[in-house]
Amino acid sequence: MIDEFDDALALANDPRLAPPRPAPRAEADPAWEAARATAHRAVAPLPPRRLPLDLALGHTLAAPLTALTDLPAFDTSAMDGWAVAGPGPWALTCGTGALAGAPAAGALTDGEAVPIATGARIPEGATAVLRAEHGTVRAGRLTGATPQPGADVRARGQECRTGAELLPARTPLTPAALGLAAAAGYDQLAVRPRPRAEVLVLGDELLFRGLPHDGRIRDALGPMTGPWLTALGAQVLVTRRLGDDADALREALATSRADLIVTTGSTAKGPMDHLRGVLAALGAELLISGVAVRPGHPMLLAELPGGVPLVGLPGNPLAAVSGLLTLAEPLLRALADRPPAPGRAATLTAPVTGHPKDTRLVPVEAPDPGSARPLSYAGPAMLRGIAAASALAVIPPGGAEARQRVRLLDLPHP
Questions:
Q1: Sign of CA dihedral 26, 32, 35, 37
Q2: Which of 74, 151, 171, 195 has its CA 20 to 30 A from that of 135?
Q3: Which residues share a beta bridge with 365?
Q4: Contact present, 301 and 287 (Cβ < 8 Å)
């Protein structure tokens, strides 16, 4: 005989009689800082390649820059004047003197001098350079106060010795860095190439010329997304306008040869927003489906089957800028093997209303490095504020008071 307890236990364990489980909740949008970290970790640096110096500007060093020669490679004069040996007065030796780029003048003995130009090789036996304005020549003799030994002489190896590390790997190549590489003996450098980017503008409502009419608006994202990606370090291959054509979008994603694809619009879940469906159909992995930031929370980050990352920017202009700096900027830095951008803080000159739960990015003008003045016209669809801004202030949930220190994201400038 089965007792009542066993009967009740059997009923409780029957899955057909158990109450239905609640549907799993979608994962909450990651916090803004976490999303940026995820974007930086999502890709590996591009393989290095060798480029001549005149094509290496803006790329990143793939290996440390070490000197191939001493700098200077020989003792040189830092001034126009005379190379002198010992104390004066000095007898001038015969000849035209020591010129930059010419073989060294003949050796000197104490009491002798020879005219010398800036950058010329110091003759053997010379002890110093007497500046032109400090000496006088009469009847083949040079007079002037005896300079200290080594005065105005750039000694061999004064800047570096052969093999010394001049710049570490991951250094962006500026004009000055290229000049240093040339001085150190390089004709080519091993670099991480600028990531190739492709911009896909989505939305049938967009016009590409003329005034808005009949419910259609001008495309503001196409003209600005490519240049901003360039300023962030990308080589923009093309900007394509696809409208709301799912088949065209699928083909564009499947055939792209870019290292990064950036789309504008179609990140929401409306009837004409095809981006998420096309990504799913292609088998892409959705790494970030939204971010706890305003404006721009529908932004997304996906990895296509071949490993190419895709950043989906919302269609509103300021929201798109938010997406560029939140996801595209750290991705481009990672592809170029650069560390995350360093932070910068400033003091707000006025209070800023915040979102109850999300980070807010607000256009600000930074009249000096330590302050930030919030600008008007900071709505998601507005461009007036961002066009006048020099940075975006990172406002924590709940807002920020006047004189509060906040983080700034400097806006890139081509």
A1: negative
A2: 74
A3: 373
A4: yes
**261: which residues sit within 8 A by CB, 6+ positions away?**
197, 198, 200, 253, 304, 308, 309, 310, 311
pLDDT of residue 17: 33
For the chain, how many residues are written? Answer: 414
- Asked if pLDDT for residue 110 goes beyond 50, the answer is yes
- Per the rule left: phi > 0, alpha: psi between -120 and 50, beta: everything else, 371 is beta
Report the alpha-carbon distance of residue 13 to residue 168 in Å, rounded: 65
pLDDT in tens, 257-295: 999 999 998 888 777 778 999 999 999 999 999 999 999
Q: Which residues make Cβ contacts (< 8 Å) with residue 401, sequence separation at least 6?
A: 348, 351
CB neighbours of 55 closer than 8 A, spacing ≥ 6?
A: none
CA distances from 111 to 152, 157, 263, 281 (A): 18, 27, 76, 87
The answer to whether 163 touches 193, Cβ cutoff 8 Å, is no
Q: How far is CA 155 from the centre of its chain?
A: 37
Q: Which amino acid is at 175?
A: P
The 10s digit of each residue's pLDDT in 2-50 is 333 233 323 333 333 333 333 333 345 789 999 999 999 999 999 999 9
- Within 10 angstroms of residue 153's Cβ, the number of other Cβ atoms is 22
The predicted model scores a pTM of 0.79
The whole-angstrom separation of Cα 193 and Cα 390 is 28
CB–CB of 233/324 below 8 Å? Answer: no
For position 414, what pLDDT does the model report?
67
The H helix count followed by the E strand count for the chain is 9, 27
> What are 169-184's pLDDT values in tens digits?
999 999 999 999 999 9
